[in-house]
């Protein structure tokens, strides 16, 4: 048992570096789930594009009416009339549309002169067309009401326009699709799970391996009465317990965060299976890294490059649907690709049927095959090094 | 003397392989990953595709000529096409909707209704189209009831779908949010130059390293030693950032605008800030080397995070919610300098950023030199 006990002593010494990834991941998950808007179910929710409205025409009823109408139908983000600030807002997509009602617009419009609302948009985007429609609709109605509606004051005109625009088309939402799979909040948690578990386990397992592989320490333990087989076995048990511990902390935390939603989805066991497979993969990679690096600096470098690299290329940080085909073709040669693929498939399930589950099992098996291959390569490497 | 100290310092720093990894190789790897991850999103022109919709071809639909004409006008191929229409029967329309082949199904009745499978922008546009029809209808009936003077003119006016919006632009640059990630990556690399500055302070303080002790007894002026070391660290840091910049511009084709000298000036100011930041931490945090490295990497990561390395619009959130932070955060200043070069024609904001960067660097350098000078050691 000495080796096993020493294992957790070493682990305690590097607990800070190991837990940092879990802590960051859990902190971000909490932040995201708090920021998440409450789920919409059943009813139709009209999209409200974020826009900024700059009204340079002041109190004129028509301009004010247009600004009010836009405020009612879109998400207004208040901004001062400052081109630099507005440009920032558009660049960072705080608003997708900036509408500027020029000074004297109402007078020009009502006297029939050519005039237009100025817009600054991301050209050609779908949401900008949506806002265009709103502005055109308001002003076309204004034109009709003004030209053919007889004498009326500007206030009456604005009121008449609003009355015309009050009609709403009834919308039915198909009941079967009330919960849309890909929008469930824990989907993101389980995608980023891959990064957290990979970084943590790599860090932990490799830290232990490095400690036990220090040449002097190694030579000393070789001449103890504990047989090598038993020592290695105790190390293996230690790695297993550590990996399972990381996995269960992360899984339990998802129950805490998403409790009822997650449990009632009926997908928990699938998520558990997939994450467990990836945990095995992470342990194997940690094993490989631990037996190849010598210094702490090299270890930190390896962990960062492998965890970040795999997460970027395989679709953990950026969804696979956004990645280009070349990147995905390359990602196929890495285990995280299959994890994310299975995860996406699980998240898209509405009912687990045998035919839908078969590809998921396949992805899980591929991950396990990767793990086995990496373990085998590592054992081969260590064997060769021992012979030296 | 300068060439001697400077030259050996260069060799010392450049041969520290771990340092070169974190300050050069790691940023290059990150840049490559960002490139692969955001490849599809970069510089892509958003294009509007007509929305697919089905309409139930009932008797009510066939009899409602005005509505049919309105839909035809909107689905005519060309610049103004909003929808791609399929006329079909009730069951088929529903199947198309369930398969996701159309975004919504229009049913003509009283009133005209829409069936969708989920909420979204396409569904909202379909609803807006139907709303518009209902609104126009309300306007016409309203006007004809109250002032039925010129019905023909009214109908003619409706036929002219005039547009009342006009695209203008604050800047000639296409807003591409992803660019900021690469700007912050350079900022992070500049700040990682702090590792070089940190190493310098370790090697010059007699209680921290044997080299420091040896150099303290040498008859060279301390200010000279510190400045020459600083110059060496700056040279290496600038060289590394330039390599990264060249990689970004020439290999990954990231758009930094075409004002080369201003871009290089930003890199220089960023490296000065990074190296002096490292020197500052090295002299003021009286802790072990490991702790200092941890403080440096954690703080440069935090600054890069606040400038938008992990969350693209973080920089803007900070600029609006806590503007003070973005004026003292070197990473945000560097990224904003690149951004203002790319977006704005005038250099006012650019020079504000550079000025603040240099001011912060000068303050940190002065403080750390004041801390270093006249150090006396009772025994070593």
Helices and strands, with pairings:
The complex is a heterodimer of chains A (388) and B (380).
Chain A: H1 2-13, H2 15-35, E1 50-55, H3 61-73, E2 75-76, H4 83-91, E3 97-101, H5 105-110, E4 117-121, H6 126-148, H7 154-164, E5 171-173, H8 186-213, H9 215-222, H10 228-264, H11 268-292, H12 296-314, H13 325-331, H14 335-348, H15 354-387
Parallel strand pairs in A: 1-2, 1-3
Antiparallel strand pairs in A: 3-4
Helix pairs in contact in A: 1-10, 2-8, 2-10, 3-6, 3-7, 6-7, 8-10, 8-11, 8-12, 8-14, 10-11, 11-14, 11-15, 12-14, 14-15
Chain B: H1 2-14, H2 17-38, E1 51-56, H3 59-63, H4 65-75, E2 83-88, H5 90-99, E3 104-107, E4 113-116, H6 121-146, H7 151-159, E5 165-167, H8 179-192, H9 194-202, H10 210-217, H11 222-251, H12 260-284, H13 289-307, H14 314-321, H15 323-328, H16 330-343, H17 348-372
Parallel strand pairs in B: 1-2, 1-3
Antiparallel strand pairs in B: 3-4
Helix pairs in contact in B: 1-11, 2-8, 2-11, 8-11, 8-12, 8-13, 8-16, 9-11, 9-12, 9-13, 11-12, 12-16, 12-17, 13-16, 16-17
Describe the overall structure:
The complex is a heterodimer of chains A (388) and B (380). Chain A contains 15 helices and 5 strands. Chain A is mainly alpha-helical and 388 residues long. A 4-stranded mixed β-sheet of chain A has the order 2-1-3-4, covered by helices on one side. In chain A, helix 3 (61-73) links the parallel strand 1 (50-55) and strand 2 (75-76). Chain A is elongated, with a radius of gyration of 30 Å. Mean pLDDT of chain A is 84; it is low at 37-41 and 177-182. In chain B, helix 8 (179-192) packs antiparallel against helix 11 (222-251), helix 8 (179-192) packs antiparallel against helix 13 (289-307) and helix 9 runs antiparallel to helix 11 (222-251). Chain B starts with a helix and ends in an 8-residue tail after the last helix. Chain B folds into 2 domains: 2-42 and 178-372, no CATH class; 51-159, D-Maltodextrin-Binding Protein, domain 2 (3-Layer(aba) Sandwich). The longest helix of chain B is centred in the middle third of the chain and has 30 residues, at 222-251. By secondary structure, chain B is an alpha/beta fold. The chains are: A mainly alpha (388), B alpha/beta (380). At the A-B interface, helix 4, strand 4, helix 6, helix 7 and strand 5 of A face helix 2, strand 4, helix 6, helix 7 and strand 5 of B.
């Amino acid at each position: 048992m000495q080796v096993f006990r020493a294992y957790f002593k070493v682990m305690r010494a590097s607990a800070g570096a190991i837990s940092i990834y879990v802590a960051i991941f859990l902190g971000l998950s909490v932040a995201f789930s708090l920021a998440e808007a409450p789920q919409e179910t059943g009813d139709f929710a009209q999209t409200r594009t974020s826009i900024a409205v700059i009204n340079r025409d002041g109190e004129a009823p028509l301009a004010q009416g247009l600004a009010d109408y836009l405020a009612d139908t879109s998400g207004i983000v208040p901004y001062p009339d400052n081109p630099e600030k507005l440009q920032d807002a558009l660049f960072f997509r705080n608003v997708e549309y900036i509408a500027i009602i020029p000074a004297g617009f109402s007078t020009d419009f009502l006297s029939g002169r050519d005039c237009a609302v100025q817009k600054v948009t991301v050209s050609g985007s779908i949401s900008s067309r949506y806002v265009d429609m709103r502005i055109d609709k308001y002003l076309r109605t204004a034109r009709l009401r003004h030209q053919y509606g007889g004498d009326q004051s500007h206030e009456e005109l604005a009121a008449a326009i609003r009355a015309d625009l009050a009609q709403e088309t009834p919308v039915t939402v198909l009941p079967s699709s009330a919960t849309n799979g890909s929008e469930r909040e824990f989907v993101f948690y389980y995608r980023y799970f891959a990064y957290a578990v990979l970084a943590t386990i790599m860090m932990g397992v490799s830290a232990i391996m490095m400690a036990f592989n220090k040449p002097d320490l190694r030579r000393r333990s070789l001449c103890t009465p504990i047989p090598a087989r038993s020592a290695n076995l105790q190390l293996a048990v230690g790695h297993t317990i550590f990996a399972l511990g990381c996995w269960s902390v992360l899984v339990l935390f998802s129950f805490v965060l998403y409790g009822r939603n997650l449990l009632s989805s009926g997908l928990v066991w699938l998520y558990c299976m997939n994450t467990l497979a990836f945990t095995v993969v992470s342990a194997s990679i940690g094993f490989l890294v631990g037996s190849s690096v010598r210094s702490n600096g090299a270890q930190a470098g390896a962990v960062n490059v492998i965890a970040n690299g795999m997460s970027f290329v395989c679709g953990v940080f950026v969804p696979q649907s956004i990645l280009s085909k070349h990147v995905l073709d390359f990602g196929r040669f890495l285990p995280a690709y299959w994890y994310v693929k299975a995860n996406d498939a699980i998240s898209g399930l509405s009912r687990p049927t045998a035919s839908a589950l078969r590809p998921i099992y396949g992805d899980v098996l591929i991950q396990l095959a990767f793990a086995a291959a990496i373990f085998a390569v590592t054992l081969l490497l260590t064997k060769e090094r021992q012979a030296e | 003397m300068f060439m001697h100290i400077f030259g050996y310092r260069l060799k010392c720093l450049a041969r520290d392989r771990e340092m070169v990894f974190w300050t050069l190789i790691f940023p290059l790897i990150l840049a490559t990953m960002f490139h692969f991850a955001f490849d599809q999103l970069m510089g892509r022109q958003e294009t509007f595709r007509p929305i697919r919709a089905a309409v139930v071809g009932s008797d009510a639909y066939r009899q409602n000529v005005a509505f049919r004409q309105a839909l035809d006008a909107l689905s005519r191929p060309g610049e103004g096409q909003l929808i791609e229409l399929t006329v079909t029967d009730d069951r088929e329309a529903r199947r198309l909707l369930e398969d996701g082949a159309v975004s919504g199904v229009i049913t003509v009745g009283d009133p005209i209704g829409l069936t969708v499978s989920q909420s979204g922008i396409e569904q909202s546009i379909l609803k807006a189209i139907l709303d518009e029809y209902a609104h126009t209808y309300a306007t016409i009936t309203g006007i004809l009831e109250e002032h039925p003077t010129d019905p023909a003119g009214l109908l003619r006016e409706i036929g002219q779908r005039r547009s009342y919006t006009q695209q203008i632009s604050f800047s000639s640059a296409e807003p591409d949010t992803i660019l900021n990630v690469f700007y912050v990556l350079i900022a992070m690399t500049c700040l990682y130059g702090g590792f070089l500055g940190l190493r310098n302070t370790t090697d010059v303080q007699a209680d921290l390293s044997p080299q420091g002790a040896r150099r303290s007894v040498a008859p060279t002026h301390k200010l000279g030693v510190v400045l020459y070391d600083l110059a060496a660290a700056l040279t290496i840091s600038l060289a590394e950032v330039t390599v990264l910049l060249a990689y970004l511009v020439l290999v990954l084709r990231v758009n930094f605008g075409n004002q080369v000298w201003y871009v290089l000036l930003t890199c220089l100011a960023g490296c000065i800030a990074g190296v002096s930041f490292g020197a500052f931490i090295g002299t003021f945090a009286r802790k072990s080397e490991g702790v200092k490295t941890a403080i440096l990497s954690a703080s440069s990561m935090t600054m890069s995070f606040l400038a938008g390395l992990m969350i693209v619009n973080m920089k803007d959130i900070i600029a609006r919610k806590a503007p003070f932070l973005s004026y003292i955060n070197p990473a945000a200043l560097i990224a904003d300098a690149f951004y203002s070069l790319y977006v704005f024609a005038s250099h006012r904001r650019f020079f504000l950023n550079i000025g603040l960067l240099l001011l912060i660097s000068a303050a940190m350098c002065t403080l750390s030199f004041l801390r270093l000078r006249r150090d006396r050691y009772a025994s070593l």
